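Ticket 4471: requesting a sanity check on a complex prediction with S-adenosylmethionine. Repro inputs:
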Amino acid sequence: MAMREESKLSQTYWGSMSRFGVDGAVIDPSDIRGYKNAYIKAYRDAKIAGAIASLDKNSCILDFGCGTGNITKHLNSLEMRAVGIDIAFDLLALHTGNAALLQYDGGRIPFRNDSFDAIASYTVLNHILNEQHLLEVLCELGRVLKPGAPYVCIEQTRRIATIKKIMDGEHKKQRCIQDFISLFSEAGLRVEQVQPFRAGHFPLIYPVRYGFVPQSMFPLLFKIDKWYSSLLCRLPIDYFDTLFMLRKPA
Ligand SMILES: C[S@@+](CC[C@H](N)C(=O)[O-])C[C@H]1O[C@@H](n2cnc3c(N)ncnc32)[C@H](O)[C@@H]1O
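Returned structure tokens:
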């Protein structure tokens, strides 16, 4: 099947982002010092580790939309067997480590039905703007997941859905939580938990960005960020990283 136009454009865009390096390319390219990206990475990794804590060691996990393979690497460090998949070869090529990463065309995921004990993805679905395309992607993810297995999905959400320009030629869609829930349900994935946990404009991210907060204080900031997000996510003022715990029915 020919590659979708949306996937082709995305592939070109994400390939061009590789110039920002292993973290900047996939998180915030304007974070020259790297402190903000370190905060987001550490928080994201802690949320994913918590969400899969009940899995056996050596479980097979698909890191969907793995980019430069940061999450794949993290999952392997938790003694999981992780495989990353992405449409952008130039991002995969930046990977520093020995994780198994695979490029594909954004269509059929090149694994058999019921292959994985879990799936993890971080801000990938935001970059699939077309609802029908996204539904097909979610059905593919459901297909390769074992019956009864979890999908830990983190996406940016907003009270009112918005399409935002992120860099030259690329947009992302910050959907409402309810829009995601409807799409997941339509794809046959059960929604078990929804938790907005990181605010896009969390006030304390600014001292973090300029290096005024030591990494040892990050766990405390995660708690404040989660509390702040749970209060503000009802207002139409910011976006939030939201954790969706999904499961393929047994
Ligand atoms: C914001 S980056 C996040 C990368 C990675 N999940 C991380 O957190 O480090 C978005 C990623 O989604 C990938 N992507 C976009 N559309 C995709 C699709 N249809 N299938 C797989 N990956 C896709 C991009 O190539 C890019 O690597």
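Notes from triage: The CA atoms of residues 55 and 113 lie 20 Å apart. Leaving this open until the requester confirms.
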